[in-house]
Amino acid sequence: MITRFAFVLLLASGNFAMAEPQLSVGFGEVDVSPVIGPKPVFMAGFGQDRRATKIHDPIMARAVVMSDGTKKIAMVCVDVVGLFLPSVENVRKQLVGYETVLVSSTHNHEGPDTLGLWGSNPFRSGVDADYLKSLENGIVAAIQKADKSLQIATAEIGTARDASLLHDARLPNIKHDEIVVLRFRNPKQAKPLGLLVQWNCHPETLDSRNTEISADYVHATVESLRKTHGCPIAYFTGTVGGLMSSLHVEVKNDKGVSLKDGTFEKTDAYGELVAGLADKALAKAVAVNLVPFDIRTQPVLLPIENGLYRIAWQVGKLRRSIYKWDGDSSPAKLNETKDISQPVAVLSEIGYLKLGDLEIAAIPGEIYPELVLAKVQDPVDAGADYPDAAIEPAIYPQLRSKHKMLIGLANDELGYFIPKRQWDEKAPYCYGLKKSQYGEINSIGPEAAPIICEAFRKLVLRK
């Protein structure tokens, strides 16, 4: 029996070894598809009053829970267009014992409206409150399933690139064409415990005329990888602003015939190509240490300068609190308001997850590749609205580890984060175009990107 005095001596001599951090991982998924019945299910993306007629393939919540032996985190991604921070907070209230719970969305344009922008007309929300609650509960259930399956694991990471799998719908042509894949194994078994896949593309291959609920290409990607590897698959979206799309990407069938946008044939074929790129990443995967965890989050207040969004909040189409804006993105006190005649803002959150030798940026919207890869246009185009705007501190250069990843629509969906010096709403337009390019209409405003990028820089540096 060791006396207290002897125990102190052991500590002092270094002969008493503290437990080393140990990675554990678990996967869980839940079908969160809406019910097609008496109540209309408004589909997200493209336009108003697109009503679902059937379920083609399920809308899923896919969760990964990880522990380093001391801290536990949950990461979940849902096959919907996005979720606002209040929904994420509703999920977190039902869970205890987590250092962080990160809730993301694939940004699927073929699922139910979960934000409110695509109702029966421009003034009505398309969100079904009952469905949204069941979706939040489904996310909680997926995390709980993953938690119950936790087991000791080792990890490998691989990356691969293929610019041909992305269409950039906005000039300048900058693509974030890297897929990142984590493979987890039980140290005593060869079969993987699961894969975490992160790719940077809008799931919108089925286009605007489809009325069948679907996860778009993500369903085919997940099912193809599940069949090949015989394990759970968790898919996460990354850098999708700019605009990274599967539309207009040339995909051919076995006979060499180009497949058409808006068809399930192309959607499935594209999803299998993404799965193939993931397999290329895994073919050169290397061991990676994912412990210990260093988790940091930061509330951030962002001004709502988009007039359409301000009106949507006023009429109740977008349902969340707004606050007075005085230019401070991290005020000591929030002042809620309903007066959109004055400057207003929305409260969001950014995150930084350091899992051993992997750093993850958690960004609450659709960030442009330029802001991630340090490729903001310089010199600025003559038609830009803010030619003297400073270049924002890019996300990836802030991450110093060998391995890095970005999860978009993380804990919120605030639309596009556009480099301020590339903002282009007013004539003359950039690149000699006769009208403005798409993007600004789905951004809260030109100050969003500078605030997000600077807040993330400070978060990474925070001790």
Q: Could you explain the architecture of this structure?
A:
The chain is α+β, with helices and mostly antiparallel strands. The chain has a domain of about 150 residues. It contains 8 helices and 22 strands. Strands 15, 16, 17, 18, 19 and 21 form a 6-stranded mixed sheet that branches. The chain has a 5-stranded mixed sheet with strand order 5-4-3-1-6, with helices on one face. The chain has a 5-stranded mixed sheet with strand order 12-10-9-7-14. The longest helix has 20 residues. The radius of gyration is 22 Å and the shape is globular. The relative contact order is 0.14. The N terminus is likely disordered.
Features:
463 residues; 21% helix; six-stranded mixed sheet; five-stranded mixed sheet; alpha+beta; disordered N terminus
